[in-house]
Design a protein that fits this description.
With 68 residues, the chain is α+β, with helices and mostly antiparallel strands. The protein has one domain: Ferrous iron transport protein A (FeoA) (SH3 type barrels, Roll). 13% of the residues lie in helices and 31% in strands. The chain is built from one helix and four strands; from the N terminus they run βαβββ. A hairpin with a 5-residue loop joins strand 2 and strand 3. The longest helix has 9 residues. The radius of gyration is 11 Å and the shape is globular. The termini are far apart.
């Protein structure tokens, strides 16, 4: 099992979350968005300056910024 930051996953590559390596407000936000162990995530769009990415998660598209 390899560890990745979400912003480093290549577009259209499907990954499965095995754990969250964060805490506090960021962890809570990811959990609120449905990102937890076993969740499949597919990056589908990255902004031109690569500071935010849209992901397909549990039937919805969500956008996350790198600094979040």
């Amino acid at each position: 099992m390899r560890t990745f930051n979400l912003d480093k996953i290549n577009l259209t590559n499907k990954v499965t979350v095995h754990s969250l390596d964060c805490s506090g407000q960021i962890r809570r936000r990811l959990l609120d968005l449905g990102i937890c162990k076993g969740t499949v995530i597919i990056p589908i769009f990255r902004s031109m300056n690569e500071d935010s990415t849209a992901y397909f998660v549990r039937g919805s598209t969500i956008a996350l910024a790198v600094n979040n």
